[in-house]
């Protein structure tokens, strides 16, 4: 146990998981929190609801393809959708640094509004706090989303079964690389844009093919590598993915190679993993490809009986390597 | 319109209201957000739900009578309860500064847990972000709460009517003064403690007397003065309060006098204003006095036809003064 908070405690990696398991869960464990999915599922007045919360601290606040405003909407919309729910309502809590330019704030709020419209959700309540200069970095946004789960839908990491197919909705690592290239210390000149996008319509298209979807997960902090490890642990199944079938933009792959980043662990903000029984895989894949954010969807692997709880990658050159959970974080403040 | 964000934008005062009306509402106005109560009320699957969100940035994080942990739970539990709802579930988003001592975090999380138990609500989902040293001040906590509104209950600032009685549940300004005396720059040695407390049980006791409660409001940022002004504007009624009947602890009154603060505008974190038809006032008051947090409840004034939208105070010496909305904030980072 560490005696103080490190950046790694906020990552999607092992230290963050240990923090959750050793500090948070002993205090707060209950049947709704225990599954540790992206959101909580509960019944209220006979309806099954999904709720998810996220604070966004991305640096810089404006980046190619988006800003902290649409990121904060899409991030929570997607977490609610990954519960199999239709997101309806969002709350927004702003923490602003004294001196933050009003024009920047208005630009961010306009992009919040645009993202709300695109996802078809409504902002219903909010809160604004201002802290003195130096007590925050420009703007932090918390969003909490509420959605309704259609009858018959039950998704969750624990539901993956051997024989299931693993489908990924598109290229990996775009968001992380888009944000990274904007950091002041790097002088990158490239055309990579964040993939920030609402995925709730895609989830509805998938659920129209079959309500027997086992897992939905958006591989944000920690990337596809961490998300698959979480699902492997939750389900007690093994996972095999094929390196060759992982979609990645050429420029993104190049920058990762240059900087020594593994794209498998970099954040995506408009991608989802969908795990379904093999018999539905082709139809689900076809439905995903029809979605504006799923054109490059493909099957990247299988859920297997072997190596329970572990993720293995068949490499391009024919070998196998274990895709482990990262200990810490490659890039802090990515969302 | 200011060209950048000032501390006053996060106050409960006039500049914060202008920011809401000029920047936020034109972008986000909808029937649920429009009433600008402490929480939003909406229907989902036939149930009437209340949702409220708040980010807590109090400085210092530990203060006499509480800490940022129980404050964050009670604050949102109370905002949900002020919609007439029974709070059931809470989400929690942590923003931690790199280097924050783990022992302090554990102490805060324990007090979150204790406050959850006391209020009878469950934490169902959460999020942890860590920002580099200097990009936040120790710890910020967002909580979002969800509750169920019993059939027949409809409270809201717009429902105050001439003839109604205004009841306050206890002494004012305790929280602000308790936090203020801990600020490093002041060397106060006093026994004032924060009033942070869950008020959901008191609300249920009130609603047992009558479901015809017009307004419930917890006078946090901006204090009783601002809360009454908000209700006067929402309802288009006037308000008259008697200075003599405003409960205030002697020590708190003394410190306010010394420092030039008006306790009417200082934050409370365990008090509520209840506005009911005069015929129910005595019974509601009696019920409030039975609650552990309402022993000093009293009727402080009346809703009137005169001076619509304005709050007037009958002073101790027999005069009258207008209780206006403050322009800014007397004390930043009070919650």
Helices, strands, pairings?
2 copies of one chain form a homodimer.
Chain A: H1 14-28, E1 40-44, E2 47-56, E3 62-63, E4 66-67, H2 68-81, E5 86-97, H3 102-119, E6 122-131, E7 139-148, E8 165-168, H4 174-180, H5 200-209, E9 215-217, H6 223-235, E10 238-242, H7 250-259, E11 273-276, H8 278-290, E12 298-304, E13 311-314, E14 320-323
Report on the architecture of this protein:
The first copy, chain A, has 335 residues and is of the alpha+beta class. Chain A folds into two domains: 7-148, 60s Ribosomal Protein L30, Chain: A, CATH 3.30.1330; 157-323, PurM-like C-terminal domain (Phosphoribosyl-aminoimidazole Synthetase, Chain A, domain 2, Alpha-Beta Complex), CATH 3.90.650. Chain A has helices spanning 14-28, 68-81, 102-119, 174-180, 200-209, 223-235, 250-259, 278-290; strands spanning 40-44, 47-56, 62-63, 66-67, 86-97, 122-131, 139-148, 165-168, 215-217, 238-242, 273-276, 298-304, 311-314, 320-323. Chain A has a seven-stranded mixed sheet with strand order 9-11-8-12-10-13-14, sandwiched between helices. A five-stranded mixed sheet of chain A has the order 1-2-7-5-6, covered by helices on one side. In chain A, strand 1 and strand 2 (47-56) form a beta hairpin. Chain A is globular, with a radius of gyration of 19 Å. In chain A, 59% of the residues are buried. The mean pLDDT of chain A is 94. Chains A and B meet through helix 1, strand 1, strand 2, strand 5 and helix 3 of A and helix 1, strand 1, strand 2, strand 5 and helix 3 of B.
């Amino acid at each position: 146990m560490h005696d103080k908070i490190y950046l790694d405690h906020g990552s999607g990696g092992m230290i963050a998981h240990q923090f959750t398991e050793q500090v948070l869960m002993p205090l707060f464990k209950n049947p709704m929190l225990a599954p540790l999915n992206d959101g909580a599922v509960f019944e209220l007045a006979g309806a099954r609801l999904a709720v998810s919360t996220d604070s966004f601290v991305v640096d810089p606040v404006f980046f190619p393809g988006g800003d902290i405003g649409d990121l904060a909407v899409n991030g929570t919309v997607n977490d609610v959708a990954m519960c199999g729910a239709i997101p309806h309502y969002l709350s927004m809590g702003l923490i602003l640094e004294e001196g933050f330019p009003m024009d920047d704030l208005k630009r961010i709020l306009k992009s919040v509004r645009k993202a709300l419209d695109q996802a078809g959700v409504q902002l219903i309540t909010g809160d604004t706090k201002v802290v003195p200069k130096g007590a925050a970095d420009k703007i932090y946004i918390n969003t909490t989303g509420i959605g309704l789960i259609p009858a018959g839908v039950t998704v969750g990491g624990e539901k993956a079964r051997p024989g299931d197919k693993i489908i990924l909705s598109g290229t990996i690592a775009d968001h992380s690389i888009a944000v990274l290239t904007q950091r002041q210390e790097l002088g990158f000149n490239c055309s990579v844009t964040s993939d920030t996008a609402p995925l709730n319509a895609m989830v509805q298209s998938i659920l129209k093919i079959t309500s027997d979807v086992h897992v939905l997960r958006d591989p944000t902090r920690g990337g596809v590598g961490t998300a698959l490890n979480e699902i492997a642990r939750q389900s007690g199944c093994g996972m095999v993915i094929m390196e060759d079938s992982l979609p990645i933009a050429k420029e993104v792959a190049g920058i990762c190679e240059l900087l020594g980043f593994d794209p498998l662990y970099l954040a995506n903000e408009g991608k989802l993993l969908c795990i379904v029984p093999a018999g539905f895989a082709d139809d689900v894949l076809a439905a995903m490809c029809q979605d504006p954010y799923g054109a490059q969807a493909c099957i990247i692997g299988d859920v297997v009986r072997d190596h329970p709880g572990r993720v293995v990658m068949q490499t391009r050159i024919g070998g196998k390597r274990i895709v482990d959970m990262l200990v810490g974080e490659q890039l802090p403040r990515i969302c």
